[in-house]
Amino acid sequence: MTQIVPVILCGGSGTRLWPRSRASKPKPFLPLIGDETIFEATLDRCAVFAAPMIVTGVAHLPHVEAQLGDSEARIVVEPQARNTAAAIALAALRLPEDAVMLVCPSDHHIGDPAAFADAARKAAALAGEGWLVSFGIEASAPKTGYGYLKRGEPLGDNGFRTAQFVEKPDVERAKAFLADGGYDWNGGIFAFRVGKFLEELDAHAPAIAGPAREAVTKGREQGRLFHPDADAFADAGSISVDYAVMERTDQAALVPARMDWSDIGSWESLHAARDKDGEGNSVRGRAELVDCRNVLVESDGPRVSVIGLEGVVVVVDGDEVLVTSMQVAQKVGKLDGAANQ
Amino acid sequence: MTQIVPVILCGGSGTRLWPRSRASKPKPFLPLIGDETIFEATLDRCAVFAAPMIVTGVAHLPHVEAQLGDSEARIVVEPQARNTAAAIALAALRLPEDAVMLVCPSDHHIGDPAAFADAARKAAALAGEGWLVSFGIEASAPKTGYGYLKRGEPLGDNGFRTAQFVEKPDVERAKAFLADGGYDWNGGIFAFRVGKFLEELDAHAPAIAGPAREAVTKGREQGRLFHPDADAFADAGSISVDYAVMERTDQAALVPARMDWSDIGSWESLHAARDKDGEGNSVRGRAELVDCRNVLVESDGPRVSVIGLEGVVVVVDGDEVLVTSMQVAQKVGKLDGAANQ
After folding, report:
1. CA-CA distance, A189 to A201, in Å (whole number)?
2. How many C-beta atoms lie closer than 10 Å to residue B38's C-beta?
């Protein structure tokens, strides 16, 4: 049986759930849903596989170490952020060639971990055959914020060849994809056989593969940490694994994953993922709601009283208070407060 | 020329503008509009008349004394709150019989002080003739929260006999009053010749007049303070001057007053009285508003960021945060926070 090694990517700048998430403590390290942090839930979900490898920057390392619990994880400390292709390359170069790496962002919520594990095993089976596998997230709405994957010919019972990668579409196209039924969202979760991934990276993105290889060769171990060489890694191209490899290989596949997924990419999607009362309200901290529906309240201290509102988010965090309608909550990142942290 | 003595009533429990106003620091003593507190603005507005007499409870006395400035005011300290008829009786019993008392709540905003002074002089002229005079506030909307005064026969150029007192009407009746045009709001501002007021109080409300008289007889002076006897005053009936006197006398008159009046009885009416930007937003404290209209923000510390909302009030005050739609802001008093101060 092939070894499945979770590779957990911990990055992010923390603007979309500002002011609860901040540059200094981004989304993965907050208990946004349930009692665990999103990172802890990711570790738990992956605990059915081999000990994970975590790729993170220096800034987030203290959070990672504080929240590892009893995980046997090894940690690759990125000298600087160079996007997902280079981050995954570092991990791949520290793993056996015949292992399957299961690449997971650390800031996604997955409500059905068993479905995740099932999809991961199917993805690993395809990866073992040499496919570069994306998880296809059920496209449940015509979202324009995600890339889409078009399903091609079936690959046994495990998945499909990826017929097409579609960048973030406009709303008309997104609606057409939904109506078609043959498209999934690209959730940024992948399975690769390590050797195959490095082959494809060498072939399609040598400007990443070369510097990453040199950074690992010249790197140094420190207990369970591994520090790639900073100068070498600085030369690596900063692009996503989708651009660098997935859209260029002719062996892209996808496994449909129906696992109650959310990237918690806005206060609206956090509200959707949370437990709610009969009026659709979700409260954390001291609050009193009167005549409210679909209201999200989050306070780290002061009591919040809300009267007669619908579809509104109220967040109190230290010296910042955010009040926004759900629908436009994605504009949070444009606020002075979020932009100038 | 008759002496006009402002009698300023300082009471109130501070729930309607909670959490900015609290039981410990109610509305009159806050700088809600402009830089002065509402009480200071009331003193200023009355400074064209004789030195005022202030009636207040022990709890608010420190605020009154701190905000008196160089006013020559005398202060009657109520042993307990017994509503307006008894409060006005205490003041009347400390004034010369031939003076005209100009009774003013301390928690109203009047945007046009010259119009107030003009109306006060007309009211004083009528009071000098023996009329018990209410200020008739322009009924600018079919409000159900106010009493209405129906104008009767003209009394020279100064005002009208009051044909009818109408308790808070339902909205259909309020609309009919507006359409009729012959009705004003009862704003709780009055002018009485002192001797006449006491005569009418003796005639219509002896259960107030008697105990008030005894409380003053047995009271004691302390510099500019006067302390009525507590035991005697406790026997005074607790009803409003409208019920006790105005609705029972056959010499009720009114002076129409068009003076940009507001009782600041809700966050909505405070917003209406405040200076606003081109989008109708009014901000006090640190705030960033994006795509907002008719939003009121008030913060004593934390920065407040608001996105994509209309007609919403956000108040941050110490350990309390209030978020409410303008329309239902009058429900603030029903919140646990406001009710259990």
Report:
1. 17
2. 24
Question: Hey, which bits of B258-308 come out as E strands?
Answer: 261-262, 282-284, 287-290, 296-299, 303-307
CB B279, CB B293: distance < 8 Å: yes
The verdict on B251 and B303 lying in the same domain is no
* Paired tokens of B37: 């507190």
Contact A312 B309 (CB under 8 A): yes
- Interface-testing mutation among A266, A305, A312, A336, with chain B (most B C-beta atoms within 10 A): A305
Give the nearest partner residue to A305 out of B302, B325, B337, using CB atoms: B337
CA–CA min distance B70, chain A (Å) = 38
Locate A257 and state its tokens: 């994953």
- Interface touch A302/B291, C-beta < 8 Å: no
Q: How many Å apart are CA A207 and CA B304, to the nearest integer? A: 45
Helix (H) or strand (E) holding B9: strand B4-10
Count of domains observed in chain A: 2
Q: How far is A279 from chain B (nearest CA, A)?
A: 17
**CB distance B197 to B99 below 8 Å:** no
Tell me which residue in B319, B328, B332 faces A302 most closely, judged by beta carbons.
B319
Q: How far is CA A275 from CA A98, A114, A147, A281, in A?
A: 41, 20, 27, 9
Same domain, B247 and B325: no
Last residue in a domain, options A228, A262, A296 = A262
In whole angstroms, give the CA distance from residue A8 to residue A29: 13
Q: What is the pTM of this model?
A: 0.87
> Quick one: B44 and B114 in the same domain?
yes
CB contact under 8 A, B321 and A304: yes
State both tokens at A168: 């973030």
pLDDT band (50, 70, 90) for residue A336: confident
Pull the structure tokens for residue A34: 């349930």
Same domain, residue pair A282 and A197: no
Rg of chain A in Å (alpha carbons): 20
Whether the pLDDT of residue A319 is over 80: the answer is: yes
Q: What are A's interface residues with B at a Cβ cutoff of 8 A?
A: 19, 288, 290-291, 299, 301-309, 312, 314, 316, 318-325, 327-329, 331-332, 334-337
Q: Quick one: B229 and B311 in the same domain?
A: no
**B123 lies in the same domain as B224:** yes
- Chain A residues whose CB is inside 8 A of the B331 CB are 290-291, 307-308
Residues A176-196 have pLDDT tens digits of 999 999 999 999 999 999 999
Q: What CATH number is attached to the domain comprising B10?
A: 3.90.550.10
Shortest Cα distance from A306 to chain B (angstroms)? 5
| Residue at a domain's end among B225, B247, B262 | B262
Contact A329 B319 (CB under 8 A): no
Within 8 A by CB and 6+ apart from A220, the residues are A226, A227
pLDDT at B235 over 90: yes
Longest dimension (CA), chain A: 62
Assess whether B172 and B148 both reside in one domain.
Answer: yes
Burial B209-242 (b: 16+ CB within 10 A, else e): bbbbbbbbeebeeeeeebbbbeebbeebbebbbb
Residues B129 and B37 both lie in one domain: yes
Identify the domain containing residue A140 by its residue range.
Answer: 4-262
Give, in degrees to the nearest 5, the angle at Cα B195 between B8 and B78. 35
What pLDDT, on the 0 to 100 scale, is given for residue A1?
60
